[in-house]
Amino acid sequence: MKIGIKLCVLALLCCLFCFNGVVVGGRGRGRGRGSLPQPKTGSSAEFNVNSFGARGDGKTDDSKAFEDAWKAACGSTGTAKLLIPKATYLIGPVKFTGPCKNVESIIVQMQGELKAVTDLSKYPSDDWVEFGWVEGLTMIGSGTFDGQGASAWPSNKCPTNAKCKLLPTNVKFVSMTKTVVQGITSLNSKFFHIALVECKDFKGSGIKISAPGNSPNTDGIHVERSTDVYISQSVIGTGDDCISIGQGNSHITVTGVTCGPGHGISVGSLGKYPDEKDVNGLVVRDCTISGTMNGIRIKTWANSPASSAARNMTFENIVMNNVANPIIIDQTYCPFTSCASMAPSRVKLSDISFKNIRGTSSSPVAVTLECSKGSPCQNINLQDVHLDLSSSGTLAKSSCHNVQAKYSGTQIPPPCA
């Protein structure tokens, strides 16, 4: 019987040894046809600004806590979440910059309200909150960036002085790639609300931007030297352009935006500085513009120092409600009392379409095509334009210079003779 027990134990040991041999040889050392795949590893971590000392009382400057939380998130691995809980945080100028070399993506969960310090001497540059040199940033939540701009607006001399000092922008994105911004609010910026500079693959949706109609230079979203930008389903009311498309942009889409008050949706101003890059590929569609100074505007400086171009632009299915200058090309742009020279603009405009633009104009001239006499517009198309005067009794008019536009479908006001 003892011999039988020994044989059973020996057989059991052999089985265990064989099993371990498969595991070690197959999975542990990666040998054999029966090797098992290595599981993918990943990690995620949350970085709460409160854990880094933020008070969230609306009185204490929490700038350092925000910077420390970002530094920890940017230095982590896998997916990092920067959490801004529901509270009111007072912060001065802060920079959230990369590159974040080992992070797959960063999520900024905006639940709280950020209030900007009002002392302008605390801003070394024209930024309040800046994100820069990060790939794969997602900002979501119902939080607010409150620039507290009312006290700063009287210091803005830019409407009358070409050499003015710029005030801080609420949120600036610089050299960002694959960025998503959804649901946030920007309130009462000292200058621009949101600015994109040299960004690639930016998607913004559900954004709310608000400032009084008389607040100077409070552009809603300004885009410059960027490509593949998509802005959708947002509500913007400011004292300047709801959206402004600056120089050097390509493949920009704006859709489902409600604009007003403000100066409308603008391309430009272009041609102010030497070495400006072209604008190529813009689509603005399915938008509503109400009570603004302009509707769709393309503006280029007279006496531009160098040649550039803006082409391949489509404005389609846009409703105008009591808008002054619903459609306007202005190539003699000069916002000051006088400019040094009114020589013709050297910005070439071409391949521009206005389709299904309808609603009401608060000014007698509903369509203005004021092109450069030095570089006349080319291939300007208007299709199904119906703009009545807000006040009854007379018809709206068109005004055209240095352009041979093409017309099709409904044309109210009548085309230029």
TrEMBL record:
Entry annotated with the keyword Cytoplasm: no
GO molecular function: polygalacturonase activity
Signal sequence interval, chain numbering: 1-25
Keywords linked to the UniProt accession: Cell wall, Cell wall biogenesis/degradation, Glycosidase, Hydrolase, Secreted, Signal
Cellular compartment(s): Secreted, Cell wall
Region (Disordered): 30-58
Biased composition (Polar residues): 38-51
GO biological process: carbohydrate metabolic process; cell wall organization
Active site: H263
Transmembrane residue ranges: none
Keyword check for Cell wall biogenesis/degradation: yes
Main location group: secreted
Origin: domain of life: Eukaryota
PANTHER family associated with the record: PTHR31375
Family note: Belongs to the glycosyl hydrolase 28 family.
Name of the protein this chain belongs to: Uncharacterized protein
Organism expressing this protein natively: Tetracentron sinense (Spur-leaf)
